[in-house]
Fold this protein.
Amino acid sequence: MKAHDIAYLVKEKLHIPHDLRLADVPATLRTKPVSPSDVKDVSTEARESMPLLAQMAVDAGAGRPFVKWWHYFDAYEEQFAALAEQSREGKLDRPLRILEMGVWRGGSLDLWRQYFGPEAVIFGIDIDEVILTLGIDSAEVRVGSQTDEGFLRGVVEEMGGVDLVIDDGSHQSKDVIASLRILFPLLSDGGRYVIEDLHTSYWPSWGGGFKRKGSSIEALKELVDTLHQPYYARSRRPGALGLERDTLQSIQFYDSVAVLKKSPHPAPQPFRGGDHSRPEASI
Ligand SMILES: C[S@@+](CC[C@H](N)C(=O)[O-])C[C@H]1O[C@@H](n2cnc3c(N)ncnc32)[C@H](O)[C@@H]1O
C-alpha cells in the first residue's frame, strides 16, 4: 500500500481526527486502535461467498483506488441487488440515475458503473477540482459542494432527475443534513438516499458526538418519529429535516449507513380480514 493511500485511509476513511479523544472513540474500537493494518484482507476468503458488489470491488485490482467499509457491501447487496441486475440487463423502463457525492480518486464511480451497468446515468460531485484531471470516464464528474443548493439542483437537472443518491462526501453532520434537505425532495418516486460513514456523527471533529443534538445520526433518528406522525399528531407538518412523512416510505439503519426510501406513503388504514359478522367477532 502506498504512503498516500495510507494517509487517505487514516484521514478520510478510518476517520481518525487529529484531535481524537479516547472518550470519543466507540467502545468497540477502544481496545484495538484503528490502523491501516485493520484493512480487510480478502486473500483467504472464497470469492463466491462474497456479495456480487464485493466481488466486483475485489476484482477492481489495478483500477482506480477507492475505499468502502467491507460490511457496506452486504448492505448494498440487500438494498440494490435486484435493481442493479435489472439495470445491468437493460430491463428498467428508463436508465437508473445515480449521484455520488464524494468522488475522491474515482474508484467508487468505476465500481458503480460495473454494478449498475452501461445504461445507468452516473454523476459524481466533489469539492476538489483534482477530479477533473483524473480522466474519469465511468461517470460524469462535476466540481462543487454538497451543500450548494443551486449547484446540486443544476446537476440533478443535467442528470434528468435522480433515483439514487450516495452521500460519501465530507461526512460533516451539517453537510450531510444540508444535502439531505436539498436532495431528498428531488428524488424520484421509489428513489433511495444512502448516507455512508455515519460513525463520524459520533465524533466531535465531524460535528457529532454520542446523542449530540444536531448530529446527523440524531437527525436521522428523528425521522423514525416522522414516519409515525399520524399516530401522535393531527397536522401534516413537515417532520424532521423538513421531510414529508407522505413521501418517506422507510428509513433503514445499518452499521454506519442509512438508507431512506422515497415513495408515496398514504395515510395508514387497517384492513379487516375474514367475516366480521361471525359470532366470534363480537365476543
Ligand atoms: C470519503 S471521500 C470519497 C470516497 C469515494 N466515494 C470512494 O468510495 O473512494 C470524500 C470526498 O468528499 C469530498 N468532499 C469533502 N467536502 C465536500 C463537499 N462539501 N462537497 C463535495 N465533496 C466534498 C472530498 O474532497 C473527498 O474527495
